[in-house]
Amino acid sequence: MPMLGGQELLIILLIVLLLFGGSKLPELARSLGKAKKEFKKGMEEEEAEGKEEKEKKE
User: Fold this and answer.
1) Could you tell me the residue ranges of all domains in the chain?
2) In 3D, which of 28, 6, 30 has the Cα closest to residue 19?
3) How far is CA 57 from CA 30, 43, 49, 52, 53, in A?
4) 2-56 pLDDT per residue, tens
5) Neighbouring C-beta atoms of residue 33, cutoff 10 Å
6) What is the greatest pairwise CA distance in the chain?
7) Summary count for the chain: helices (H), strands (E)
């Protein structure tokens, strides 16, 4: 997957700003941060369960 350059990120930011408005951006960023945290937590729990099952088989 190619990395986005500065111009592409700026264009995406402007589109998001137009779609959601300036007042909604902090709320949107907070929601994305929480979602990322929950996803990471779920991945770590799944990894721990996988290790436990592997140890039980041995």
Assistant:
1) 24-58
2) 28
3) 41, 21, 13, 9, 6
4) 777 889 989 998 898 888 888 888 888 899 899 999 999 999 999 988 888 777 7
5) 10
6) 56
7) 2, 0
